[in-house]
Model the fold of this input.
Amino acid sequence: MTNVSKRFLVSAMALGLAAVSSTASAESDPSTHAGRASVYEKLHGASLEAVSTPNTIVAMFNGAGQPVVAPTRIWKVLEHGEKVECLSCIPLVSGLLYDSHPKTREIAAWWLRRRIFGVFGPGQVYSQVVGTLADQTQTESRRVAAANALGEFLTMTGAKHLATAIRQDPSMQVREASVKALERMNSQGPNEDLSFAMTDEAESVRLAAVRAATHVNVFTDVASVVALVGDESALVRRAAADSLGSMRAKDAVGGLTALADEANEDDAAVRKAAIWALAQIRDVSARAVIADAAAHDSDRFVRDAATAALRRL
Done:
């Protein structure tokens, strides 16, 4: 082992011992503003940290580890306890990852992802969540919650586990949650898994994937989105048009032009989305079909959108 490696290991061990030591001190003295590292030592005693202490967090649960306070109380205590160091609180808060309330699950993951020690090590909360997602004997709702938690943890190693769920989990709800988790992480997956999800048999999964493509700034497979202009679902076609317009995808002009024509597309919302996407791309070759829609489309909102789109070309 090199001297640099030895120094790094010693420093990491020292940090771990310091974290455990400060936790023990905070939990034994309720008056301590738990988590008050040296960088926060000048904060006034009336700071938000005084609102939540280790004891405050523990008091939200009964002896079986179940929450006994209202969801709003949980949110307040955890939000105000962002800097609280409490190793014994971690198992309690980790149970909230599977709570019935979406916001409770979200804020629990938010609080936990700030705890390096005791959360992300082998066998700790992160590993437990990964195991829950992969275990198809777990209930669908728990696997969905596990996928959501991985997204909120914002740890990129979680992307491969979400990708596996997208490709292999039999539940469309779990696959959809895994797609949304990749979006939360700003990842298209290690093997273009968002593109794979766009071919999913479930409409909700394809819809989640095409919407995610717009928000994931590393997404590059525009061709997969273009292919969805011919999807059997009007919702997916509309989402694809919206995404292609946001991407300014010139390769999509032909497909969008077909969607803008009432002779080809009977859903007015899809035609409107396609017309506005063409306006965003600003390809003059689309002028004729947009002008025709402005004059002759049977839907007033499509005509209005086409009239506005002509001004952008």
In short: Residues 125-220 form a domain with the Leucine-rich Repeat Variant fold (CATH 1.25.10.10). Residues 3-28 form the longest helix (26 residues). The mean pLDDT is 87. The CA atoms of residues 1 and 141 lie 45 Å apart.
